[in-house]
Automatic annotation (TrEMBL):
The keyword Transmembrane applies. GO terms for biological process: cell wall organization; cellulose biosynthetic process. This is Cellulose synthase-like protein E6. Mn(2+) binds at K302, D326. UDP-alpha-D-glucose binds at E129, D158. The active site is at D158, D467. The keyword Glycosyltransferase applies.
């Protein structure tokens, strides 16, 4: 009796819960209110003190020079922008929540009776994304703690590369050893590369026979890796190997990356009796797909690849849950899929959830996170704030979808998905060859003609960050989404290890996001009436990254130049108008420090984060703004740059030693070093001038704000000066860039400002 009662109430318990983040809500709102009032005061000050108008004598010391009017107006516009942007950023700090799952309850209620799950891994280029990286991701998800007959893994290879196929073929053989190995030794993480990097010797607790097994598997992995790397070095697969699988015959000499037929190979099929591991257990299905490419057809990048996979997988396994991961993001938690199911399968609250997004995390972030790849504030604060308004941003990787919603289903109140889907008996009887034949046509270039694919169905086309638009569209169709950020990270990727890579990545993201803002998908108009205002604002924080570049450049250049010339732009310290400036600057800085520390950053990390934000605004955002405007005017086509994931050892060493990597003559570096040089010159020049010729304390009192601004800019740029003047290694700033920046900084000093 008693036990039945317990299991009865057990049935009522939710599979996940939502908690408010611990940061005090009311306190924060009061604090934000006080900042808002002071921002308004700053605007009032600027608007009422325009030089040349009667009231201008109020704050600024007019014994010193008076700035030209454009300087003042520029500051006013910058401050208006910063203020408005600050208001936007309040949305993601207003209502933060955190999600927790109960996998034990899921297991109790459903056992192994779980829905089918299809996992998509996308790769685009075997040189930029090495096949060994790809198969480690594949193996990590094949080894999920999940019923293998319900699990299918699909690779989309947009590089159409025989080498990637070969690596996958090797992985399919190795998986027979790897999956039972993971179960036997409770291996975590289940990417062999990551595991053997962390555990290089058999764990001391093992017995003799186990040690032998352990070492055998490790050796098997290393042999496989060496064979794959040898093939890559050779640039082709040997004839010997090609005889082992029929799939290799697809690669005729005419095939190129941009022109080939659909290549679809089912390497392991769950229903095939021979697909068992070394313990005799069934293996998950594994499918290789290189969709058809023809030069006259647009292939729509990753969105096109995912849409092909959606169709092909619907024919082969038709899992109700679809997970998409990037090929460089292995799964760090073999139970992640079960976590996601806790959301979808919750009886009371799960029916309206379209997708569950896990954050992006990286496994090779250095100690003080020089390039700000840790994303701690974004992952722990900002995204949880969006979730609080009913939406997570679909970031394209580490995201679990309900197949029906990503394929275009609209939400209706009475919708309930049945998780016990039967396989169509006729489809189930087909042989692998028949299956391959039937699903192949779904990946042809012409298949999507006159269909809703790329529009209402699947991922949307026509924008470099198609995932974000797709997520927004799903939310606008009435669905809910979840942001799930557990303590132990679900997915770990490879972070950029050079400054160039880091900045280009942000350029690409910000450009795509800004295009969304300018398109019909602008969250304010497209989402109006469909999603909450807070969520619309939240999206726009990211969509409006690029326009931040101009006010930032203005603020980092003009006040410093005025400092050099002894022209005050801010109220003097004894004026009451000084207070709002000091309050806004001081309290927002302190709060950002507090926020960073509260999510686990160190002070150095916070400082590095600020440096990178300055760099991003000066370069990535500037370039993406300019490129977007040029494109809007109809001048150039979208080009998609993938950031390379391989660099040489010397660069890696500098990365590990946390030295900024410049090294090439990128225009981005020229801008960064020009601003750095300019601020150093103006700081020193301004100080000398006011000490030697200046009027003592009075002058300093009027210039204090600019001194602080300029001084902080110099401090944040200390590593840039090192790279400019002191470092001799190949990662230093090249001589040409140095000369250019000194020249440009000198020119800037000649700009007439008074
Ligand atoms: C990855 O998983 C391991 C367990 O295998 C865990 O110890 C580690 O903390 C996880 N990494 C992150 C970044 O959460
Ligand atoms: C510090 C660290 O973990 N660095 C690793 C980053 O990722 C590369 C792979 O591209 C490794 O080789 C590094 O060791």
């Amino acid at each position: 009796m008693g036990s039945r009662e317990i299991s009865g109430s057990e049935h009522e318990l939710p599979l996940f819960e939502t908690k408010e983040a611990k940061l005090g809500k009311l306190g924060y709102r009061l604090f934000a209110g006080s900042i808002f009032v002071n921002i308004c005061l700053i605007w009032v000050y600027r608007a009422t003190h325009i030089p040349g108008t009667s009231s201008s004598s109020l704050g600024v010391d007019e014994e010193l020079g008076v700035p030209k009017r454009w300087v003042w107006i520029g500051l006013l516009l910058s401050e208006v922008w910063f203020g408005l942007y600050w208001i936007l950023t309040q949305s993601i700090r207003w209502n933060n929540i955190k999600r927790y799952t109960f996998k034990d309850r899921l297991a109790l209620r459903y056992g192994e009776n779980l829905p089918g799950a299809d996992i998509f891994v996308c790769t685009a280029d075997p040189t930029i994304e090495p096949p060994t990286l790809v198969i480690n991701t594949v193996l990590s998800v094949m080894a999920y703690d999940y019923p293998p007959d319900k699990l299918s893994v699909y690779i989309s290879d947009d590089g159409g590369s025989e080498l990637t196929f070969y690596a996958l073929y090797e992985a399919s053989i190795f998986s027979r050893h790897w999956i039972p190995f993971c179960k036997e030794f409770k291996v975590e993480p289940r990417s062999p590369a990551a595991y053997f990097a962390q555990v290089s010797d058999p764990p001391p607790s093992l017995k003799n026979q186990c040690i032998k097994d352990w070492l055998t598997t490790k050796r098997l992995y290393e042999y496989m890796k060496n064979r794959i790397e040898a093939a890559i070095k050779l640039g082709k697969v040997s004839e010997e190997i090609k005889k082992q699988h029929k799939g290799f015959s697809e690669w005729t000499p005419e095939i190129t990356k941009r022109d080939h037929q659909t290549i679809l190979q089912i390497l392991i099929h769950g229903r095939d009796a021979s697909s068992v591991d070394t313990d005799g257990n069934q293996l998950p299905t594994l499918v290789y797909l290189a969709r058809e490419k023809r030069s006259q057809h647009s292939h729509n990048f990753k969105a096109g690849a995912i849409n092909s996979l959606l169709r092909v997988s619907s024919e082969i396994s038709n899992g109700q849950i679809v997970l998409s991961v990037d090929c460089d993001m292995y799964s760090n938690d073999s139970k992640a899929l079960r976590d996601a199911l806790c959301f979808f399968m919750d009886e009371k609250k799960g029916y309206d959830i379209a997708f569950v997004q896990c954050p992006q995390n990286f496994n090779n972030v250095t100690k003080s996170d020089l390039y700000a790849n840790g994303f701690r504030v974004i992952n722990n604060v900002e995204m949880t704030g969006l979730d609080g308004f009913g939406g997570s941003i679909y970031s394209g990787t580490g995201c679990f979808h309900r197949r029906e919603t990503i394929c275009g289903r609209k939400f209706t109140e009475d919708y309930r998905e049945s998780w016990n889907q039967e396989i169509d008996p006729i489809k189930a009887k087909r042989s692998i060859t028949e299956l391959e034949k039937a699903s192949k046509v779904l990946a042809d270039c012409t298949y999507e003609e006159n269909t809703q694919w790329g529009n209402e169905m699947g991922l949307k086309y026509g924008c470099p960050v198609e995932d974000v638009i797709t997520g927004l569209a799903i939310q606008c169709r009435g669905w809910n989404s979840i942001y799930f950020n557990p303590e132990r990270k679900c997915f770990l990727g490879v972070a950029p290890v050079t400054l160039d890579q880091a900045l280009i990545q942000y350029k690409r993201w910000s450009e795509g996001l800004f295009q969304i803002f300018l398109s019909k998908y602008c969250p304010f108009t497209y989402g109006y009436g469909k999603i909450k205002l807070g969520l619309q604002m939240g999206y726009c924080i990211y969509c409006l990254w690029p326009p931040n570049s101009f006010p930032t450049i203005f603020y980092l250049v003009v006040p410093s130049l005025c400092f050099l010339n002894g022209i005050p732009l801010f109220p003097k310290m004894s004026s009451l108008w000084f207070l709002p400036f000091a309050y806004v600057f001081g309290s927002t800085s302190l709060y950002s420090l507090y926020e960073a520390l509260s999510v686990g950053d160190t002070i150095t990390e916070w400082w590095n984060l600020h440096r990178i934000w300055v760099f991003r605004r000066l370069t990535s955002f500037l370039f993406s703004f300019v490129d977007t405007v040029i494109r809007q005017l109809g001048f150039s086509q979208t080009t998609f740059v993938i950031t390379p994931k391989v660099v040489d050892d010397e660069v890696l060493k500098r990365y590990e030693n946390e030295m900024l990597e410049f090294g090439n003559t990128s225009p981005m570096f020229a801008i960064i070093s020009t601003v750095a040089v300019l601020n150093l010159v103006t700081l020193l020049g301004g100080l000398i001038k006011s000490v030697i010729f200046g009027g003592g304390i009075g002058v300093f009192e009027s210039l204090i704000s600019q001194f602080i601004l300029c001084g902080l800019t110099v401090l944040v740029n200390v590593p840039v000066y090192e790279a400019l003047f002191f470092r001799k290694d190949n990662g230093a700033i090249p001589f040409f860039v140095m000369v250019t920046s000194i020249f440009l900084a000198s020119l800037a000093c000649l700009i007439p400002i008074s």
